[in-house]
Specification:
Elements (H helix, E strand, L loop, with lengths): L2 H23 L4 H32 L1
Helix pairs in contact: 1-2
Length: 62
């Protein structure tokens, strides 16, 4: 998998996580938005590592 594709998936995951969290939170103050962005960033990093490890494992089997 290309780097660009992984990065695009991670950015999409961060945005989706943040938007869904804000909708569920029903509060749109600056501290809440920043907290949710931080959590989204952490989620995106973990998700990116998962994708990268999965691709390495898949390529190793082939």
């Amino acid at each position: 998998m290309e780097k660009k594709r992984i990065i695009a998936q991670v950015v999409a995951a961060i945005l989706l996580y943040t938007v869904i969290s804000l909708i569920l939170e029903k509060d749109y103050t600056q501290p809440i938005i920043l907290r949710e962005l931080g959590e989204g960033l952490i989620f995106g990093i973990i998700y990116g590592l998962f994708i990268w490890i999965r691709e390495k494992w898949k390529n190793k089997k082939e």
